[in-house]
Design a protein that fits this description.
- By secondary structure, the protein is of the alpha+beta class.
- Helices cover 79% and strands 8% of the residues.
- The protein has helices at 73-182, 192-208, 213-317, 331-336, 339-383, 386-434, 450-575; strands at residues 2-12, 15-29, 32-35, 41-43, 55-60, 66-71.
- Strand 2 and strand 3 form a beta hairpin.
- The longest helix is centred in the C-terminal third of the chain and has 126 residues, at 450-575.
- It starts with a strand and ends in an 8-residue tail after the last helix.
Length: 583
């Protein structure tokens, strides 16, 4: 298990004790660390030559033995980079979640409003259906009333027939009376039987007259009920017409929303195309950075070759006493310096160079491991699917960032190492010459190689300037790539949110269209129910109008018949009266 530890050295009265590793934190997973509770320490191995207070990474086995240890600087840098990337991703995800929350809140409010609107319209439709059911019940009541009126009309017809029979009998009696008068029969008047027959016929005529008031009351009631139902039908039709206009307006709004939906999808596709273009631009810039880094590596190799050549020339010049050392070293001061002091200085320079060489070698090895990791991820990308490729591309970008940062650090360190090698070489040359270790010079050594060294220095400076220019260009390109990555991440988040909003808008629109279609269907059913009801009311009105005309005509006939009966009754009374004798 991997731990982050602090180097501690206990000091006693006989000197410094053996170093120990105080465990500070333990790695639980790739990006998860937890603090170690308590003061747990482990004895450092013999090869641990760290200073007190240094931070190291310690790999501990199950039996609490240190298996591997190394300085924690680079690892902490990587962990901090990962933490920074995770923090950025977490912040982006929090922003996306907040946007989702706002979108869902808006959608919830919109759905609640639409639900209330639909409930209100549902209540109106249910009320209309209840009113239509009541109207149907009232229509059945009108049908029963019409049947009653028809029965009364049949009874009136029957009574008219009886009245016609009575009139026929009366007319027969009247004709017989006229015939008797024409024959000159002189009687004192009608006998009692004849008068009784005539009175009976008149009574039957009177009884046969149907009272019109008995028909007017139900007729008036039926007419009032019909007018009431006609008013209800008018109100229902007006309400349905208002609902139709409202639904038509809602349909226009939905058509506008459908147009907005098409436009929003078009905007989303345009944003997606812009995102694809940015990704292509990012790939091109990353390829350009890779090419520039290869150029930097080539120039670095060239600079190394120039440094090696420079060193070889210095080694060649160190074999003679006629050495023109670089102007960086004060040769006169070295010549005048105490030999022991000069030897100590050369030893310090050798130790410093050895330490620097080990450090640079370790970083070169780490750089090689980073390149190997990049190559492995690149191989995985070539074999991965489209979905896995996006995640792998993110990983390779992070690895490339770490590689670039480490390489930039190494550029200066390599240059510093070369300068220290030169400085040590120059000091060693003076020391060997003062120690009398110079060899017999040859005619070739008499050649002045200082111009060649100056030329090499100029080339090295030119190469260094080219490397610095490329590094500056790479830095600018990487900054642009970082900005472009942030733009792409923001665009991806915005595009995801935009798509979710458009899909939610589309789902809501489809639901509204389905609800509107249901309401339109119910409205059509209500209108279909109203039309037969209106036709029935129109038929009842026509029947009532015909019946009212018949009642008015019957009233006239009854008045005429009653007047005729009264006149006949008076005639019968006058004819049937006995003659008055003179006294």
């Amino acid at each position: 298990m991997l731990y982050l530890a602090e180097v501690q050295k206990k000091t006693g009265f006989i000197g410094s004790g053996k170093p120990e590793f105080k465990l500070l934190a333990c790695q639980r997973s790739e990006n998860s660390w937890s603090a170690v509770t308590g003061d747990e320490t482990l004895v450092a191995p013999d090869d641990a030559s760290y200073n007190a207070g240094a931070l190291v990474m310690v790999d501990v086995s199950g039996n609490r033995q240190v298996q591997r240890h190394y300085e924690a600087g680079r690892s902490l840098t990587t962990i901090l980079q990962n933490f920074s990337n995770l923090s950025k991703k977490s912040k982006t995800q929090e922003e996306e979640i907040e946007q989702w929350k706002q979108s869902l809140t808006f959608q919830s409010q919109e759905l609640n409003r639409r639900e209330l609107e639909l409930e209100s319209r549902q209540e109106q439709v249910e009320q209309a259906e209840a009113d239509l059911e009541q109207l149907d019940a009232q229509r059945q009541e009108l049908d029963q009333l019409r049947q009653s009126l028809e029965q009364q009309q049949e009874e009136l017809t029957r009574k008219n027939q009886d009245l016609e029979g009575a009139w026929a009998h009366l007319n027969g009696e009247m004709r017989r009376l006229e015939e008797q008068r024409a024959e000159g029969v002189t009687t004192a008047g009608l006998d009692a039987e004849q008068v009784a027959n005539l009175q009976g016929a008149l009574n039957r005529l009177t009884e046969a007259v149907m009272p019109v008031e008995a028909l007017r009351d139900p007729l008036t009631h039926a007419t009032d009920g019909l007018n009431y139902h006609q008013g209800l039908l008018g109100d229902y039709r007006q309400a349905l017409e208002g609902q139709r206009q409202g639904l038509e307006q809602r349909q226009q709004e939905l058509d506008q929303q459908a147009t907005q939906l098409s436009q929003r999808w078009a905007d989303w596709r345009q944003a997606e195309a812009a995102l694809v273009a940015k990704r292509e631009d990012l790939k091109l810039r990353q390829q350009a950075v890779k090419t520039q880094q290869e150029q930097i590596q080539t120039l670095t190799d060239t600079l190394q070759a120039q440094a090696n050549l420079h060193q070889k020339i210095y080694d060649l010049l160190n074999t003679t006493d006629k050495v023109r050392l670089s102007k960086k070293v004060d040769v006169a001061a070295l010549e005048a310096m105490d030999l022991d002091h000069l030897q100590t200085m050369v030893g310090d320079l050798e130790k410093d160079l050895e330490k620097m060489s080990r450090f640079v070698s370790d970083q070169e090895e780490e750089l090689a491991l980073e390149q190997q990791a990049i190559d492995e991820i690149q191989l995985k990308i070539e074999q991965a699917s489209e979905f896995d490729r996006l995640q792998l591309e993110t990983e390779i970008e992070e690895e490339q960032d770490r590689y670039q940062m480490l390489n930039e650090t190494l550029v200066g360190q390599r240059r510093n190492l070369l300068e220290r090698e030169e400085l040590l070489s120059q000091h060693q040359a003076v020391l060997r010459r003062r120690q009398g270790l110079t060899v017999e010079e040859t005619p070739v050594s008499a050649v002045d190689l200082e111009p060649l060294l100056n030329t090499i220095d100029a080339q090295r400076q030119q190469t260094t300037d080219s490397i610095q220019a490329l590094e500056t260009e790479v830095k600018k390109t990487q900054d642009a790539i970082g900005q472009l990555k942030r733009e792409i991440e923001g665009a991806e988040a915005a595009l995801t949110t935009h798509r979710a909003e458009v899909e939610a808008f589309e789902a809501g629109l489809r639901q509204q269209q389905q609800d509107l279609a249901g309401l339109m269907g119910k409205l059509a059913v209500c209108e279909e129910l109203l039309n037969p009801a209106q036709e029935s009311v129109n038929g009842l009105r026509q029947s009532l109008e015909n019946l009212a005309g018949a009642v008015t005509k019957l009233q006239e006939v009854n008045d005429y018949q009653l007047q005729a009966i009264a006149e006949l009754r008076q005639t019968v009374v006058s004819v049937g009266a006995p003659p008055v004798t003179a006294s």
